[in-house]
Amino acid sequence: MPQMSPYLENFLLSVTKAKKTANVQKDKLRIKAPNVDVVTDNLSGGNQQKVLLARWLILEPDILILDEPTKGIDVGAKAELYKLMVELAKR
Predict the structure, then answer these.
(1) For residues 83 and 56, what is the distance between their CA atoms, to the nearest angstrom?
(2) Are 18 and 36 in contact (CB under 8 A)?
(3) pLDDT tens-digit profile of 33-81?
(4) pLDDT band at residue 88 using 50, 70 and 90 as cut-offs
(5) Which residue, of 32, 68, 80, 82, has the greatest Cβ tally within 10 A?
(6) Do 63 and 91 contact (CB within 8 A), yes or no?
(7) Would the keyword Repeat be found if you checked this record's keyword annotation (predicted)?
(8) Mind giving me the DSSP string for 1-50?
């Protein structure tokens, strides 16, 4: 699980910082949700996959291993995830 330390202020979670990062990731990964407060389980399979990917991308890993990231999602979401993976590979 990604670390929360960048979002802590005096040992308490900074909701403002966390929401700002979440909104940036939502826009960057084109996550279709009305806002960042929506429970991930209430999103489509493709958007759930994007949320999980966004959580790890916040850490800016040198290597990210994706094992069947498009399994169980619809064709449109697969195409979008493949496009995102190509963009990440270019970085």
Answers:
(1) 17
(2) no
(3) 999 999 999 999 889 989 999 988 888 888 889 898 888 888 888 888 8
(4) confident
(5) 80
(6) no
(7) yes
(8) ----GGGEETTEE-HHHHHHHHHHHHHHTT---SSTTS-GGGS-HHHHHH
At 39 the pLDDT is 95
Determine the Cα–Cα distance for residues 16 and 22; give it in Å rounded to an integer: 10
Closest CA to 21 of 1, 41, 51: 51
Distance of CA 53 to the CA centre of its chain: 4
Structural domains of the chain in order of their starting residue, each with its CATH number: 5-90 (3.40.50.300)
Q: Which two tokens stand for residue 72?
A: 């169980």
Tokens encoding 18:
């966390």
